[in-house]
Amino acid sequence: MIDFAGVSRTYGRKPAVTDLTLAIPPGELFALLGPNGAGKTTTIRMLVGLLTPSAGAVRVCGHDLVADPRAAHLRLGYVPDEPILYEKLTGREFLLFIADMFGMPRAAAAPAIEAGIEQFELGAFVDDLAESYSLGMRQRLVFAAALVHDPAVLVLDEPMVGLDPRSMRIVKDMLRERTRRGMTVFMSTHILALAEELADRLGIMVRGRLRFLGTVAELRDRVATAATGLEELYLELTDPRTGVANDPETGIPPP
To answer: Between β-strands 29-33 and 201-206, what pairing exists: parallel, antiparallel or unpaired?
Structure first.
């Protein structure tokens, strides 16, 4: 469903992502972790077509984001780290606008919009102007918009920003249900407990390179530590003083 093939991205002479090769199959929830400046946001922006790779290729459902962007975008849903709405539209009007952007016939869009309103409990404010929404209300609306066209791939950048505990539970339940039905989810997060709870696999990126790829159990096996939680394992793998990942085979920082 998602395929990074030898992907690099530079800004001038500065590398942001280097030689990223990663395949994520249908029905998997993949979590990308890493310290600030690791290259996570650049990776996500290439995945959703906001940035072009300097080298390599990014494909969604077999469609190259550069060569065939429209076909790739039709299969993508995206929840950015900062929910941006059209302030003078109501929530319902925004959802209808998104459905139109994906070419959904009105007959198909109407029930999909109502389902999103119900799932994310938007009914109390969906007919108010977006300019009146709190951060949590905006985030819930953006989730409904990302799913209105029933995408095969959902990309999430810090998805729990602004959400209260009930809304977080709604999102977690939705992710579990959608992945069971075959949706691929690519999630970048700083909330290690969220990754540990939901992810089938995780990747740890440092300074633009993928330093670990596997399950939490595999990470535990490869790091020489008695720690059992993802937070401890993550900190063991990543040198907090330098931001450089330890070697995953030995747990020793690189020279």
So the answer is: parallel
In tens, the pLDDT along 189-222 reads 988 889 999 999 999 999 999 999 999 888 877 7
Residues 6+ apart with CB under 8 A from 62: none
**Tens-digit pLDDT profile for residues 170-186:** 999 999 999 999 999 99
Tokens of 5: 């093939």
DSSP letter (8 states) at residue 25: -
- In this structure, are residues 44 and 185 in contact, taking their beta carbons and an 8 Å threshold? no
- Domain span at residue 52? 1-75+198-255
In a domain, 210, yes or no: yes
**Sheet strand arrangement including 201-206:** 76-79, 153-157, 184-188, 29-33, 201-206, 209-214
User: Has residue 214 been placed in a domain?
Assistant: yes
- The Cα–Cα gap between 184 and 47 comes to 13
Cα dist. 75→16, 98, 120, 183 in Å?
26, 14, 21, 10
Q: 239 is written with which tokens?
A: 């040198």
pLDDT digits (tens, 9 = 90+) for 135-174: 999 999 999 999 999 999 999 999 998 899 999 999 999 9
Is 87 inside a domain boundary?
no
247 within some domain:
yes
